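Residues pack. One example:


***
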Amino acid sequence: MLTFFALENDSRVLCYANANLTRADQPGEPRRFVEFWRELTGSDPQWLYIDSKVMTYPELSALNGRGIWLVTIRRRGAAILRRLRRLPSSAWQKAVIDTPKRCHQHIRYVDERVRLPGYEGEIRQLAVAGLGREDPTLFLSNNVEQTARGLVVRYAGRNRVEDGLGQAVNFFHLDCLASEVRLNVDLDTALTVLANGCYRWLSKQLRGFEKASPKQVYRRLVETAGLVEVEEGRVVVRLDQRSHNPVLREAALDREPFPIPWLGNRSIAFVYP
């Protein structure tokens, strides 16, 4: 059983997941995500940064036909590496990835066009050395306008997906899902994505916590003792005194209270000491 995750780059929200995948279904999952995104927003995503394990060359060709810019990694074959080693030093160009806190900033690359089985036409391939690996990393992209440096920086944004999954494992215990029924795991994964989205929304309402992880938000702001009083038309939450209460007060989460059906159409009000 396999799981597919997608993360929106700017908001860092895990916006899509499918844990009900078999290996036979895996190659078509990126296109299913594109259809999901189009139904949600009305247009295809502008850029996709894709794990090579879920991407086949015909799938790349199909996404290219839709006008979607994409970046993925190509597996390093022995023949490709031998050819790259035979290239003269003049074939390699230099660039600096001056991202803050980045360990490997000086890279060398070969920018070329290649043909792939199942891909219609040529695709851009960047062979990049100096990223901390012994052999060059092979980037594939259908965008020929971006600089080589720009493509490397863009694909580095894919690390946010791994960070998001790390948070899901660390805080939501995503790695504890176990069942012989795929549907159970898929449901638990979907609930994890929803919970992650709720915490990301909450963090954006709290000044100074916009980039905080769900675990930080929970420990500093959500994990707060208090008193809950159920009144006729509302639920009053009286929070105990905490150092971060002014942040919650400033956010005014109950500024526009609305009735919640599963609370008997009551609204929620917060009271701070």
